[in-house]
Amino acid sequence: MYDASSNETATIAISGVSGGSASESGTQTVTITITDNESAPTVSLSASATTIAEDGGGSITITATASGATYQDISVPISTSGTATEGTDYSTISDITISAGATTGTATLTPVNDDIYEYNSGSASETAIVNITVSGGGASENGSQSVTITITNEALDSGTQNTYSSSDATSWAAVSEFQNSGLTVGDDDPYYNINLHKALAYPHLGVFQFLIFLQS
User: I need a labelling partner for 50 at 20 to 30 A (CA). Which of 15, 182, 197, 204 fits?
Assistant: First the structure.
């Protein structure tokens, strides 16, 4: 374990001499220098996964790892950036402490399932970039450490699509709202011409759900 920023010394003294009429020659001591063969540790950052679904109910563990144990707690404050917002798109991430004598400390990132489809910089996913600084126990950051975590969004994310039901589309086209619109289905019926019956054939319905339908 790295225990100090310099070498240590041990001084050994004679507490007393007895027997054979012997006596201590003045004050006798020897000093021994103990060279510390451990170097000051550096801290690296890692994550248990790099992608997580917003509505998946899971969390990602962020781990700060020291290259060796040290005599004092290592403080690893967290800062964040990216298109996702800490405290809004995911929970606030606590700072990490690596306890004296230990080599790892952890924090947790948990996405917030807000049921809102978001579109950021040309992507339906958001990113959380986690950065650190390091102090205590003589430790330092191993270069510039960060992890990037992608949070996939609610519905229509990562290429995930609901299943289209042609039979449901036919059923919707036959309901009274279509039949009583005053026009002929397949002619100038506004509901039919915007493919509303096909949109309703994707079974992702519910209270306060935001839906986006794209027609290729």
Answer: 204
- Classify residue 149 as left (phi > 0), alpha (psi -120 to 50) or beta: beta
| Distance separating alpha carbons of residues 34 and 6, to the nearest angstrom | 10
pLDDT band at residue 121 under the 50/70/90 scheme: low
pTM exceeds 0.90: no
In whole angstroms, what is the distance from residue 68 CA to residue 80 CA? Answer: 26
Domain that holds residue 201: 161-216
Query: Same structural domain for residues 173 and 89?
Result: no
CATH number at 148 reads 2.60.40.2030
Whether residue 93 contacts residue 107, with contact meaning beta carbons closer than 8 Å, is answered with yes
In angstroms, the CA 82 to CA 129 distance is: 5
Residue 54 and residue 157: Cα distance in Å, rounded?
10
Claim to verify: residue 186 and residue 126 sit in the same structural domain: no
